[in-house]
Amino acid sequence: MPKIERSRHPLQRLFKYGRKYHPLIWQATICSILNKLFDLAPPAIIGLAVDVVVAGKNSILAKFGTTDIFSQILVLSLLNFVIWCLESLFEYAYDRLWRNLAQNIQHDLRLDAYNHLQDLELAYFEERSTGGLLAILNDDINQLERFLDIGANEIIQVTTSSLIIAGTFFYLTPNIAWLAMLPIPIILWGSIAFQKLLAPRYADVREKVSLLNSRLANNLSGITTIKSFTTEAYEIERLRGESEAYRQSNSNAIALSAAFVPLIRFAILFGFTALLLYGGREVIEGRLAVGAYSTLLFLVQRLLWPLTRLGQTLDLYQRAMASTRRVMNLLDTPIAIHSGHIALPLSSVEGDIKLDGITFAYPGSSAVLANFSLHIPAGKTTAIVGSTGSGKSTLVKLLLRLYEVDRGRITLDGIDIRELRLQDLRGAIGLVSQDVFLFHGSVRENIAYGNPHASLEEVIAAAKIAEADDFIVQLPKGYDTIVGERGQKLSGGQRQRISLARAILKNPPILILDEATSAVDNETEAAIQKSLDKITQNRTTIAIAHRLSTIRNADCIYVMEYGQLVERGTHEELLEKEGIYASLWRVQMGLVSSSGAIADGG
């Protein structure tokens, strides 16, 4: 992200982001100003009424042609009624406009931030906590909404009243206006000083709440592990530490922000008292009218007392700016993996894949793959086996462009996948992973996730192929049964079969099976294998497996070690080579123990 963006004030960045709402902002601002204008009118009405009672036919109002005292009071009453109606009308208008503006910006920010998150590369999420990202998407954006609901209008109205009342004072009594204005520089200086002191404290508050949310999200996801290791007391202590840090951070901010109003009240006290004494003397000596004196006393309260709310407004403002900076920094995070421009209709995909001299390393690590080449022919089943950490799953991430290769290129049907539209590339690939993720929803919704418009009949057909229908119909509500968050109500084998059904329903031209039967029993594995033999016909299939029995019928099997291909061939050819594959096969079949001894009967 350009440094100039991060260096700009959060309010500037927010105003730039909400440019489509500028007309709404101006409407809300105008309504706030008009409401304050009519709100400041009653003190003038009171001053005129006092003038009528004291001066009678010589009052200010009498100079406009209404000399009868009762008629003057009647005019003031009607004027007061109109003013109050207009004040109420514009209060309704600004309140509705500001709150709708807050809701609209909140809605857009959350969607845009989440949409931007989805476009970021996988490495971004691996370096950050889920709870921290949730704090930005939820808590920080809500904090901004609270400021737009209340704080923006407060700032505009305080500014409006200050300008109007100051102008009125200097017009009516220029000789004593400075007394009313005396506290204002002190208040403004105090506000700026408090703002500078509060800004880092609220930035720390946002950071602490992010860490707290991360702890909560992490613990809720791992509640089974916590219970199985009986670490509840340990976790509550860790949570206590995070919550205490958040509480202390807030206390530091509160200690400063709470001091603002009492200090401002002292400044207001001196200004009001000085005006009361000096203005009263001016009236006694005949240099100031009683009505004008009454108006000034009312106006100075309208000017100075609202300034005491600056503390709360400033508090909202600083919290909102700390949150805005975090949200905008997220939106300004550059996208590392960009979509290509070449469309790839599913009907035209043959599925011929080539990895040509690719090199890849995870950030901060040594190369997982170095000058790696592999050809996966269209319509064939290619299996890849090897020990943990050999780079098998990394190949899947690179094919899906979850990561970008450092050197070399990967082609699909002769086209570099970096030139293909990301949505088309990933739409052409169906992934069944060993790490199955099911969404909180029904079984049917999870199977139809890649094809949400699929009919129930199509969902059931896919489930039958995946050997999932038998257990699904025995669930309490069948296909409408809620699986729970991450599918926690189902066994590992059941989740894996639903994941397989999801890929089958998607019907992609390329199918990747990453340990697709690792969580099922032998009987279910045999049944699924028969189904896989059918669905992999004339479809490019990449099967990654530890259990060699699941890939023995593959057209070609590759053995990977330390990011390199060390063997290739069919199942029978690899057994004849008496190499790594043959050794793994004998161990898994029980012909040789893991220590190398001949098993009984072997």
Question: What are the defining features of this structure?
Answer:
elongated; six-stranded mixed beta sheet; disordered C terminus; ABC transporter transmembrane region fold; 602 residues; alpha/beta; 23 helices; four-stranded antiparallel beta sheet
How would you concisely characterize the structure shown here?
It is a multi-pass membrane protein. The protein has about 600 residues and is α/β, with parallel strands linked by helices.
Q: Helix segment count?
A: 23
The CATH topology of one domain turns out to be ABC transporter transmembrane region fold
The main pleated sheet reads as: 6 strands, mixed
Going by CATH, the homologous superfamily of one domain would be: ABC transporter type 1, transmembrane domain
Rg result: 36 Å
Indicate the low-confidence ranges by residue numbers: 593-602
User: Under the CATH scheme, which class of one domain?
Assistant: Mainly Alpha
Strand order of the largest sheet: 6-7-8-3-9-10
Distance between the termini: 64 Å
Judging by the overall fold, what is the CATH architecture of one domain? Up-down Bundle
Please report the total strand number as a whole number. Answer: 10
Architecture overview:
There is one protein chain. Residues 593-602 have low confidence and may be disordered. The strands form two sheets. The chain has a six-stranded mixed beta sheet with strand order 6-7-8-3-9-10, sandwiched between helices. A four-stranded antiparallel beta sheet has the order 2-1-4-5, covered by helices on one side. The protein has a domain at 3-331: ABC transporter type 1, transmembrane domain (ABC transporter transmembrane region fold, Up-down Bundle). It is α/β, with parallel strands linked by helices and 602 residues long. The protein has helices at 3-7, 10-17, 22-39, 41-55, 69-119, 122-126, 130-172, 177-181, 183-221, 223-228, 232-257, 260-284, 290-304, 310-331, 392-399, 422-427, 443-447, 456-465, 469-472, 492-506, 522-535, 571-577, 580-588; strands spanning 353-361, 367-376, 381-386, 407-412, 415-416, 429-432, 510-514, 540-545, 556-561, 564-569. It is built from 23 helices and ten strands. The protein is elongated, with a radius of gyration of 36 Å.
